[in-house]
Amino acid sequence: MRKVILISIFLIFLILIGGFSYLSFKQKRDFSGTLKLKVYPPFAKVKIDNKDYPLLNGNLKTKLKKGEHYLHVFSTGYLNDEEKIIIEPNKITSIEDIYLLPLNWPKKILVENQNIKALYLSSDKNRLLYLLEKKEKNSKENYQWFIFDRNSKANELVYESDYLPKDISFVSKKILFQTKNNNWQIILPPTSLLRDLNIVTQSLNSLFEKQLKENPEFSNKKIESKIIKAVFLKNDENKVIIQTPQNLFFYDLLEDNLLNIYEGKTSDFILDKDNLYFLSENGLLNKVFLKSPLETKTLSLFSFENKNLEKVKISKKENSEEFVILNSDGRLYYLISKENVIPQIILDNVDEGNFINEKLIAIKEKGKEDEWLVYNLKDSTKTVINSQIPPLNFFKEDYFLVLKDNKLKIENLKNNSFVVIEENVLKEGIFFDKVLKTIFFIYKGGIVEVSY
User: What is the pLDDT of residue 3?
Assistant: First the structure.
């Protein structure tokens, strides 16, 4: 009898132990989750709820109780990152890119001169065109035009003028620009066979008018020869798109051949790789394939604008036929062309609207100087950024390159922190290249390159 009692007590004990173990397991299973972090620099330190968590080559994977936690990532010489995270039970919360901004950004001075007034970056990113203001009295030419080659470090004087240009298209070495008298010129590089002491530029207007006069296809038509806009193809300095009040033309400088792309009034056009986009007179969005043979395709049956086409602005998402279109009334639309549906109206009373990245648009409302809305296409949220230039997405979604009081900054919108890269920066010459991971800008001492 005593033996039976002892066995019963032992079994009850085992059941209790098993029950407690099961409840403990269930509690852990139901009330914990996993946090994964990827941190740069990899030697940074991490605190979660004020407790240290060591990183392994910048990575962390740990279990945490469900609910809200306070994350603090920091390192000497870097801007701290602080945020709240939510852990869900039995789920992995992954934060792959925590990037701490350096407090000091090494700057490379490419051209040292205090009199640089404008800066342009070639489409291949290898050359910088800058305009230097001359200080000599009684000089006819007030500006010297230089090309700086980033590879050879050579500076080359290519032109002199008494004005700053209105529009510039800069592909490799050739420069296409509009003068103050609405005359379009092509600067010939010093190595060009056409350039000598007397021939420094070609007049695009003269070349174009000669084609209209001598080509039988155009000579019998009354085509207005005024050039509204002219742009080199992205990767070919010998091919130009010319817009007139009633036509779009494709001009091959080498072949001396002019083709009519479109006949009729159009909006301002944009180029992307080998394609041209514009609104036609009926307000429809069109695409022209610029590779031979030329072909035109209508991308949307929705009419955006049939008046004031010259005031319409188009922006295209990189590597996708998604557009934001601003009509003359200040209404901003978002269109996915492949869906061929009625576009989404984003906002009214707008002055500017351009893609920032895959899902963000920078919007400037009328009457709001130096204030931008960052509009998220996924959830329609809006964030206000104050900047003298359109905010440029820097490295990841929450970081933006902005200019405030002529100070070039990188702002972390997630926790309202920032670092200053340089002061006394001119807004007319700021370029950021994501592929090169490099910022180019003009400051009081010259032209600077900052890489990260």
Answer: 57
CA 404 vs CA 351, 360, 400, 417, 425: distances in Å: 20, 21, 12, 14, 10
Banded model confidence at residue 228, pLDDT cuts 50, 70, 90: very high
Fold of 2-99: Immunoglobulin-like (2.60.40)
**Cα four-point dihedral sign 130, 131, 133, 138:** positive
* Antiparallel, parallel or unpaired: β 360-365 and 350-355: antiparallel
The predicted pLDDT at position 203 comes to 93
Q: What is the mean pLDDT of residues 377-388?
A: 93
With a pLDDT cut of 70, the percent of the chain lying above it is 90
- Per-residue pLDDT, 23: 47
Distance from C-alpha of 425 to C-alpha of 117, rounded to nearest angstrom: 11
Mean pLDDT value across residues 54-67: 91
